[in-house]
Amino acid sequence: MAEHDLTKTIIPYLDRHLAFPLLAHLVETQLFPVEQVQAAQYELAKGTNMVDYAVSLFKQLYPDQEIPEEFSRKRERAVSTNERLQQEAQAVLDVIENPDVAQALRQDKNQNLTFLKDNYNVTLEQINALYNFGQFQYTYGNYSGAADYLYHFRVLSTDNELNTSAHWGKLASDILTGKWDTALEELNTLRDVVDSRSPSSLLTTPTEPAALAQLHSRTWLAHWSLFVYFNHPQGRTLLLETFLSPTYLNTIQTSCPWILRYLTAAAILSRKSAAGGSNASSRVRYSIREIVKVIQMEEYQYQDPVTSFLKELYVEFDFEAAQRQLTLAERVVTDDFFLGEFREEFLDNARYLISEAYCRIHQRIDIGDLSERLNLSRDEGEKWIVNLIRETRMGAEAKIDLEKNVIEIHRTALPVYQTVIEKTRGLAFRTQAIGAGMLHSQQAVQSQSQPSVVDGAR
């Protein structure tokens, strides 16, 4: 469903190298003409030092034309630049990879710089060579090498601006090499840097206020984090905990409401395990409720079948409409770069939500009718419902009468004290959020007396 594809919306918030996997996915799904996607890949590749990749794309687009001479010249420049930067960086690596030097280094970077300068004549310019070579390796497509050089640079450098840029480059490199545990650590570190609101930690321009720069940085980080959260084993839970925090929820509502698709999908994917009594946090267990409120508020600027499914189910209580939206959502999830691998899990959890909501308002349920609402045949629906009752806490309340082909729900009345607990469960969190907001306001006032933000933080 091309009208619901978010690739063109997301790419402006990505580094060009992170955009390549999304475009390759579009070639596979064929949502758009292959020639158009290849043309976009070619335009992106021309801006990198991956000359051979750009040449291969040129051949696909223009099989009858000769390869422009500019590619040969660009390849020669890239090779010579690579050799020069490697020599400059290798001089520093030879020193810091010495076991004696590694043992002598301390947490204090200034002390380390003094030690290296006094004993090995290593200067700040030479340390910056690690950054330059790591950045060049990244444009070359050697993401593993780029991650190594940027890591070594960050260990030694005291330049906050370049350190933040190295953070972004290291995160992108870890994503593109599929090192998801390392990428998650880097993502958390970078999020702390951005949230600290230090001027040099933000993607800024000279005239841009610090608060606006922080909003832009969080917007970019929200998009980059999708790669990590939908590939790491614990990613969906971590996405909910991060994106439902006041700061990032405000960022999504202000700058990128389309991220609601992924927030909604993560909540649906996590719902069954959370309801089953796993170690999921209370935020995850009650995330659906919070997300439905946000979907209602933001539907004027963004909605798709994934978000509409929850709206129809929990706001309108229209099971027929929810069934229709689930059918559309299945196609959207299948074609989505980040969600495609979770199609079956998404459908299973969505059916659980429908069953849970349906059973909550009925005491006697026809299995055939419920199967139809789950988009399943009668036999498939019967098996699915039996497994659902066996695997979840519904088993204590639901009994199946196979002769009459119905489910009978017997609920015990909820104690008054538990009702009070349910109503007041969110008070502690909201109190913490207010306290954090007041603290940030104080920090904002203090930061106004600091020097103006630095241009080109990334």
Structure description:
The protein contains 24 helices and 3 strands. It has a 3-stranded antiparallel β-sheet. It starts with 6 loop residues before the first helix and ends in an 11-residue tail after the last helix.
Quick structural gist:
By secondary structure, the chain is an all-alpha fold.
Helix fraction by DSSP (H/I, runs of at least 4)? 55-70%
Report the average pLDDT across residues: 84
Q: Between the first and last Cα atoms, what is the distance in angstroms?
A: 35 Å
Query: Quick one: how many beta strands?
Result: 3
Structural class: mainly alpha
Per DSSP, the total helix count is 24
Strand count, sense and barrel status of the largest sheet are: 3 strands, antiparallel
| Uncertain stretches of 5 or more adjacent residues | 447-458
The neighbouring-strand order within the major sheet is: 1-3-2
Radius of gyration: 27 Å
Beta strand %: under 5%
List the helices and strands and how they pair.
Elements: H1 7-10, H2 16-29, H3 34-46, H4 51-61, H5 69-96, H6 99-104, H7 109-120, H8 124-140, H9 143-156, H10 160-176, H11 180-195, H12 210-229, H13 235-243, H14 246-255, H15 260-275, H16 282-285, H17 287-298, H18 305-314, H19 319-335, H20 343-360, E1 364-366, H21 367-373, H22 378-391, E2 398-401, E3 406-409, H23 416-424, H24 427-447
Antiparallel strand pairs: 1-3, 2-3
What are the key terms here?
single chain; three-stranded antiparallel beta sheet; 458 residues; mainly alpha; disordered C terminus
